[in-house]
Protein 1
Amino acid sequence: MKEFWKILVKYVRPYGKYLSWSVLLNMLSAIFNVFSFSLVIPMLQILFKINEAVYTYIPWGDDAFSFKEKLVNNAYYSVTQLVESAGPSATLLILCVALSVMTLLKTACYFGSSAVMIPIRTGVLRDMRMQLYKKILSLPLGFFSQERRGDIIARMTGDVSEVESSIMSSLDMLIKNPILITFYFATLLFISWQLTLFTIAVVPVMAWIMGVIGKQLKRKSLQVQEMWSDTMSQVEETLGGLRVIKAFVAEKKMTGRFADTTDSLRSKSAKVAIRQALAHPMSEFLGTVLIAIVLWFGGTLILGDKAPIDASTFIFYMVILYSILNPLKDFSKATYAIPKGLASMERIDKILDAENPIADHPTPKELDGFKSDITFEGVNFSYEDGKKILQDINFTIEKGKTFAIVGESGAGKSTLVDLIPRFYDVTSGAVKIDGTDIRELRTADLRGLIGYVNQEPILFNDTIFNNIAFGVKGATMEQVIEAAKIANAHEFIMEKEEGYNTNIGDRGTKLSGGQRQRLSIARAVLKNPPILILDEATASLDTESERLVQEALDRLMSSRTTIAIAHRLSTIKNSDEILVMKEGHIVERGRHDQLIAQNGYYKKLNDMQSL
């Protein structure tokens, strides 16, 4: 339960005013409930004429009697006076009306206490999703290389919903039931402390039995959520790989794989559901056993010569005791529901508690544009598994120059350029801009200097205008059109029925590869960064699309510092300097003609492409 209270303190604290209203309304509901049931005693006495005692009014200031004696006596006195003046039938009608009014007030307060909890439940759900989303955006790329996208989606949807349905739904119960139990228990003590002490001796046995049954639910719920993540991951993989699945006629294989996962999920979910379904009948049975035991014990007292309470009061006692059972049953349900939510919260916390090594310096230096150069000084980089990716990298990129990086796949080219915007931090050495270590700069300022054009264009399910204007506040239509013209994109955009307001679909699937790439170039043009990173921007295009994209890139590169990763050496022949990488090392460097003359690794790559 310690984990449960930590969650409540963390997420419910901003909604304190709603909690205060819930406590107040639940207290009023309990008070009205007790008083409405107390009217049962005089009603029974009138109906069955079982009380022939004569009552006289006792002043409230009379110290010869206890408060309980004065309260009971004066209440009976008022009823007997009403019977004498209005008659038994009229008195019974008045008591019935009073019972109805009390019940109306009780149910109104009960509804109000539940209604004020709704903003808490919905608010916590929103806050948790927003916190997760912000955390996902803030985490470094390295975190997501170790996690499946489907698993992250499952945590943000299924796990958050499970926390809301299991933990937040129990919050209303945890506020309401202790109040009801407190008031009902005080009433039971007030009526008969002997019977109440006997009841207390029986209740812990019920609680222990329910605890034993629900003990393993958290572990089983955690397994269910992990299997749900597997299911979501397979769905995400299927959607992303439909073309390959259909091309290889692998529908049956994928269906069988998915069936295995869903069958396992069904089996585990069934076990959890069976344990949950056991909560109500078990609590119902134990509650009935408790009532039966107390009824036997109380009946024995009443049948004795010195009964502490009369029959009508005992019935009132049993009504209150039965009322206290419902809150106790809710607690038993919570022992099943809360562990499920805690299991989901454990998975959510894996993301929320993930450390972000890419943190801003406590006192970052001001970055006033890009003035001179980018320098790599003795840079080494390894992933968390210890595998070395870059070793002893040293070079300088001067402002306004075009710097190309070539080499075989896996040589570390993309990792090297990812160090410049601090997608990763160096293991040792330093990357500097204008002589300042980028770790001493504010990350947002650093990335504000850099534009990116990737091999696989990253676009969003939005309009063409919003995709080009992405990341640029207040961009006008004129600015977007000008950027599109520079990127050779304006012509095909205007051929669309809705022009710049055309929605391009998920990841731009309504456009061709060349069109998507030209939009990503237009986005970089509009940002107008002094540093441009091109990660094999034309590698996956046909000849005509490559020509159009290359023209756009040439215009984009003409007035800024460019770092270009390329497989096609023909696209970087005019670079000011070419860096040749192999297995994480720089093996050659120079201009195209110089590298050809060296007759080394670069010439080998060039000759292979010529063939």
Protein 2
Amino acid sequence: MIKFSGLIDSTARFLQKEYLSDIDVWKKFVEVYEKQFDDTYMGWRGEYWGKMMRGAVLVYKYTRDEEFFKILTDTVKHIMSVAEEDGRISAYTRDNEFKSWDMWCRKYVILGCEYYLEVCKDEQLKKEIITFISRSADYVMAHVGEGKLSITRTSNFWLGINSSSILEPIVKLYKWTGEKKYLDFATYIVNTGAAEGINIFELAYENKLLPYQYGVPKAYEMMSCFEGLLEYYYVTGVEKYKKAVVNFANAILASEISIIGCSGITHELFDHTSARQTVKYDGVMQETCVTVTWMKFCSRILELTGDSKYADAMEKSFYNAYLGAVNEKKRESHKAHELYMNWHNLKLKPSILPFDSYSPLTPGKRGQGVGGAMNLCDDTYYGCCACIGAAGVGVFAQNAITASKEGITVNFYETCKANFGYCDAQITVAVETEYPVNGKIKIRVTADKPTQFTLKLRSPEWAKGTTGYIAYDKVWSDETVELNFDMPLVFHYPQHWEKDVIYTDTSKEINGYCTGGALEVEHLPEEDNYFAVTVGPLVLGADERTGKNPETIFLPTYNAKAQNCEIVEGEKCLIKLKFTPENGEEYYLVDYASAGKDWTSTIAAWLPTKR
């Protein structure tokens, strides 16, 4: 049991109260299945219920709010009630099943129920849920597989990797039931390689290409497939698959993560993001779905390897891209609403969603699109990022302080108190800090009786000195450990590159299946004319409300002084620094997550240095 009193707590409780507890929204998500409404535009509305349930369960694991839990229980019972007599549950009619995003949405029903099973207290309800998701999977397996419809041909998008991501819930179903037929179906999916004509698992195992070079670059869906492969490794023990998953994670770290902890400069794709962060692109970038999926994937690789670099990656994402996307000011994206309505020729009510979908790196504004927007059965709409977002804070809280047979590990530092039953003793770990604003941390460990164990404290990659984990192996009774991480001000500059081949989101059919087309891109000299600033885990961003337009020229300087923590009067930020270059033209930077939260101000993480 852990209780925070900082950003983790306020974010989780905001999402639970304002969005995840909205009974009407849950009913609308189930209604998509009742009316099989995804036949309209061959859409992906069916993903909403399971995506939201996964995040809701992760938030509930932190808050333990019983009224909230009842809402989740009721909607699980509701979704089970719409199954057809043969076990089929789909947001598509039978005439259109196993096309487009049908399998992707079925996957999320099973997966959402499996997450709920982890917290379900009613044994009879557990049995009913397992029967429900088993029958749903059985229906799929009766039509898809060896000698039937190939799973990679159950979607005409992205060579079927969206459909193949059902691997994760199928392996989990095997773990819940022990029925070999589910493991056999998982083996079938793994053997297909997850994509039509491309074996992404073999490519990761061989480790000769980076993910953006695989030929099917959709970031979120590909990571979902590899999370399924990790589940498959856990039940089979085949080391090849462990190596493939770790290779894939390391390749993303090396080539795809932006300074704010997301991926995708050209739409929602792996596209050599780390090198191309200052490329100008008129479309959307840095999708919140990708941020959250990356955080979830890192948490699994952290559990697998114990390597602190994955905790470092989660922290970068959480304090920058993720918190920057939380719509705590409850803005409505008028531009996104207008574009969506023009596209579908619909008249829908403006909606306020819990997350912004896309984040600017070079000068731009928040609130420029609603990712995965689809109209529901009434005159409202929802989006994919709004549904997945809660999982980000949930998984971050879950991994902050963990206990295992190796000891107790502190990965993330916010003021909190955690209680563990450990080695027949009750252990309390209490953290006092103003992190991430400064690196001073006091950790008090108390035990109801003297207990020997190892306490591991993460030393972040940006801190001077030791990085990795600092280990204290001793008998604990009532001890205090103090840390003081130096938070250096660091200036970053774009990686230089000449030419590259990326796969775009432009529609192109390959054997009747839509994927991105290969595109040769060239580096432009002006893409070098930027710099970025970090202090500890925080990216500092320009916000025009601090008095300097982010589209104008900034000069880097180490002459920075802390100011009051406000962007404008009455609007707080985590940190605000005043920079005074040699030419005397001072400017202010604030933490990126606080910048542009009015959704009208121009902000930037990468600052122009010359025209």
Protein 3
Amino acid sequence: MANNRGKKYDAIVIGAGHNGLTNAAFLAKAGLDVLVLEKNEYIGGATVSRELHEGWKYSNCSYVCSLFRPEIYQALDLGRHGLEVIPLQGSTTFMQNGDYFGSYHQPTVRRREIARHSKRDADAAIRFDADLMKWCRLIRGFLLRTPPNPASLKPRDAWEFAYLVKQFYGLSESQIYEFIRFFTMSIAEYLEEYFESDVILAHFSGGSIIGTGLGVYSPGTAYVLLHHAMGDVDGNIGSWGFSRGGMGAIAKSIAASFSSFGGEIRTAAEVRQIRVAGRRAVGVVLVSGEEIDASVVVSNLDAKRTFLGVMDPKDLPEDLLHRAENFKIRGSSGKVNIALDGLPNMTALPQGSPLTRGHMHFTDTLERLERGYDDWKDNRWSADPYVDALIPSQFDPTLAPPGKHMMSVFVQYCPYDVEGGWSDEKRDAFGATVIDQIAQYSPDFKSMILHTEVRTPLELENEVGLTEGNIFQGELTLDQLMFNRPFPGYAQYRGPVKNMYLCSSSTHPGGGVMGAPGANSAREILKDLRRLNTVPADFGDD
């Protein structure tokens, strides 16, 4: 059996997704000798850009940047390593009657557009924006901190609880009640407290169902909207943007930062098992049979893959195995990437409208959104899917040849266990359903298609390791947030054996291209090793 026993690393990180790379970069910055192991021949995990059609670069999985923490950007000097984020220009929902609703960034234009559909909603939008940003600012203060353990008597956990109480102390009694309701409400019920227009309700509901196996009337979906709204681009909270060069540019820049600190990345090096001796992680075994020693092992795999895949059951407590088996990580999303011969004409929009340079949606009522969810519950892809379509090549000429364009289409809902099982024919039929929906609003769209890449949850699982294709690596429901993520007793990034850690989106604060789980985990590792904390002060204890 091959081995690498002559070289013992300070730390091995399993998985070169953006959280794994972030974790590794902060460890290497502290002076640790770090090795990142990636099963694919490319890095990035779901944060990847690949040329699958000559001349076109697809962001195969993740497709837009907003949640990535600016503190990480600054601490790892990612601008110097090539990361550039370009803000989006708004969003649109097309209506079946030939009209549209456009959500603009300019406040006066946005208000005028909302008033075109409902004068009452134009006034309500001011209150809605203020309330949503209030919760965003509150929650953002918890994203980059390690959750306290409610069962612990350690001073650090007591201090963290005191911090939580302090943040809520400034809220009035009615605001505290409102905040608790927010976490348990459906997005439909929450929005109906503000708006009356069907298309405005549908437009603002979309962010609450992206990546989750829930519908707009399912309790808990209001928080998912908040999760998507709390990011920022250039200091603008709630803004989204494109990374120049595709989403793979994020992973590429973090990897460059990691390498600048002396870190090492090995691709085509899939880990079969985390080696444990004397209740300590001591290294890994690759699928090839090679053994590599390390003082610390960090898993960037989701909770199911970590505990049910690369760890021996005998090294785990029985209750942890049970929790891992029941961890909610349902696949509900698909992706279609399209090479276009030109820029398609969206009939409803005025010529030259900036709305083509933002999100485009085609589901204009809550009823249509809920019916799409009903299809998913019956193990069918939605006959009338919710899609989030973007054409980033309008901003980024590196994605397509001159005069051509690339469209990225995120799709909800698409089941992991489709009725009768997935086949190439069913995958193509799913893609055709998505294309047909867009074509209803763009007469020249189909004639411009040069190539399509269709990904169901099955492809997302097989290619980038997302269990069931779940983009958040675990549902963002109340029972799987904060000190419950991924499981009670394991929310502080430490595994069940010494020197074994977690850093994936299965941990707090959850999924999205955020980087916070990787950074938070690095801080805990450095604390245990009594090494210099290289994670910015804003991430740590006050």
Protein 4
Amino acid sequence: MTKQKGKIGIQTENIFPIIKKFLYSDHEIFLRELISNAVDATQKLKTLASLGKFKGELGDLTIQVEVNKKKGTLTVRDRGIGMTAEEVDKYINQIAFSSAEEFVKKFKTKSEAEQNAIIGHFGLGFYSSFMVSEKVEIFTKTYKKGGATKGVHWECDGSPEYIIEEYDKKDRGTEVVLHIDKENKEFLEEYKVEELLKKYCRFLPIPIQFGMETVQEPVEGEKDKDGNPKTKEVKRPKIINNTNPLWKKSPSETTDEEYKAFYRELYPMTFEEPLFHIHLNVDYPFNLTGILYFPKVKKDYELQRNKIQLYCNQVFVTDSVEGIVPEFLTLLHGVIDSPDIPLNVSRSYLQSDQNVKKISNYITRKVADKLTEIFKKDRENFEKKWDDIKIFIEYGMISEPKFYEKAEKFALLKNTDGKYFTFEEYKKHIEKTQKDKNKKLVYLYATNVDEQYSYIQAAKDRGYDVLLMDGVLDAHFINTLEQKFTDSMFARVDSNTIDKIIVKDEEIPSKLDDKQKEKVKEIFERNIDKKQFEVVFESLSETDMPVTITQNEFMRRMKDMEAIGGTGMMGLGGLPDTYNLVVNTNNPLIYKLVETEEKEQQDAVVKQLYDLARLSKGLLKGEELDKFVKRSVEIIK
């Protein structure tokens, strides 16, 4: 074969500027594409050997990646099936470029949004190397015997023109040499290349070598003074990937320690062990394997996202898995591998793909089944982990109706005494004692035990139970439960006085008549912030506090929800907090206030009661707090 020059027959403008422009934000994926091609060529050879169609020695099939900073080249070398001159012409000059031409035609006629939706539908593969190169060379030799005893050299400088010639290559396989351009010199830095290899190729099924590493090896027959084998430093090829990741093993053959070790391999900078794992393994109606871990979640749960890694045949695709994994499970960690999800796809394509929807539904069901199993098998252990895993479960129950149906059997409610109940258990626990005037079941809850202690205690003193709803999603979750539970309502313990929330058999009569109430109201209103507080009267027990502060449940809850996002209501967060100043008409201090005629004494008592109520609610601060402390000292004197 003599040296040939040719021009690829495309009718459109030069493809390469389009590739560079379109894929610029993802230009690092060129290395993934080249390694994937090398793996594919190697696995094809192994398959041919297993079928008896290749009878030669397989030998070392390690894929080698080399950087030569002096020459400005990055090389990917495999010992796979290789190509003949005819195959180079067919697969490199014709098929790939015709796909590229079709891509350009569609690309030019679409809007920017539509352009983003067609990435991945065309076999650009090998040509992604031109995103970072001024010239690309291929040196290849087929595994076939016969007439193809010599290799082939192909060269292209990023224009439709190419050179193809015979080349004296000794070994089978393909070597792709990239001459890195000036704008992409970072890909000649070893640390950068290794970073990309570990990102995209860390679990590929064929060993990948990049550079050398120094290790300690025992010296045969020699020991040190303590009797331990002597070691020496040796250099060996550095293999950067694990060719047999844990998710490829059968769950029945995998130990807990292996799952934990694999978690540390995935997240070396995470020091806490996962709570538990779910091993996915399905081959119908789609192929999917993987391992999902429930991590310990911090309060800033948003920072925990993008921890699930998506692979296609062990090739890394993305760690942004929305659309593939249900939204609430994006907080999990782990790996999903499916050949039914192509390497290069747009987000909109994923969201509309039927296979992806089936995968999403399967993962939801599998997670629910695993949680059900753990709950039934070892409820005590499940309760110990509840506070760490409830964010996943609540998120799922809020956002996925099908998950709610399964989760309502194992989801737990925790009260302020630290006891756990299923939904059904808690309903039975309170249904005889906690109902409002409309016979609705009342779920009392607190969001902060310390801040709402007096209100919680007041409820307990009356024989009621109080839930602890202090999770980051509990404001949303309460709304979901109210919609699901029949004839029920949720009320925070400080949303009103307990006797107003839950109806008792007998009402306590008021010791103040309307005229006396008007007098008390007038005294209070001249000593309080009337824009923030409204004076209301309630007939409570003589032993209840003289003055308490409550806040409208609906408005407070809406503001809480808006603070963490997702209410769809605008502007509530900007409204000032308003409260009810509840005056207990049966407390002796209030009755004494009625009898007092001296204005100065009236004001002193009311100011103290008002500040005490605000102090218990955490509303007394700054200068007002300082005045209260000084006034209290004077009273003690």
